[in-house]
């Protein structure tokens, strides 16, 4: 009996709240920190709304509707294959929508505002639409991997402050190999790539946006019993630049190849949600990129 009495005294000492107060506190905690029950149809509609069309019909069909939020996409190709032109076209098409902001991180110092303007002029947009579209493409130049980390950290602050319907839908990093190999020693490359991967995955998921990263490819001669191969493409082993660690970081890797002077082929190199080796063709012209 004494133990039971001491227990009630202890309970009274620990909490003097009545039952109604305790229930209200519990409800407030659940409301602030608990999970939210949603209808499956509402979740499906949210997912559909978070798909970002590139407005390049062939590419959107290849990607099953466009760019998905929370995903890292990588565009690979040899130098001068049209990777930057593809990024310009995607950035322009997405920024044309009033509520979309595009963040373009330029590491090569070759972002060309006049090219964006040319793309829009060739599509017969008014000066007001052109000015507003170019205003929604926010360009930042970085010259080292450390500056890139700093920009991404500052960007997380800016993204938290974005309110209303107008928000960042895509971040483009054009391109990665230059600042990685120029400023990182061999032993530090994996560390830098690991930090970058963590930051990009966090930003993409936390702020419901897509990230496009431009990468190069490395071609290796396939050595057979007859000796080194000739220059035939069939005798090349092609891999993305940045090493083995980076191989599985992007959710979807696209390979961009030159077919003719202006014609390009895009292939799904590998993806966690799309079928590999599917392809589409695009044409680079004065109005950006057109689809057959």
Automatic annotation (TrEMBL):
It is found in: Nucleus. One of its GO terms (biological process) is reciprocal meiotic recombination. One of its GO terms (cellular component) is Rad51B-Rad51C-Rad51D-XRCC2 complex. Pfam families: Rad51. GO terms for molecular function: ATP binding; ATP-dependent DNA damage sensor activity; four-way junction DNA binding; single-stranded DNA binding. CDD domains: Rad51D (cd19489). Residues 48-217 form the RecA family profile domain. It comes from the Eukaryota. Belongs to the RecA family. RAD51 subfamily. PANTHER family: DNA REPAIR PROTEIN RAD51 HOMOLOG 4. This is DNA repair protein RAD51 homolog 4 isoform X2. It comes from Bombus impatiens (Bumblebee). The lineage of its organism: Eukaryota, Metazoa, Ecdysozoa, Arthropoda, Hexapoda. The gene is LOC100747797.
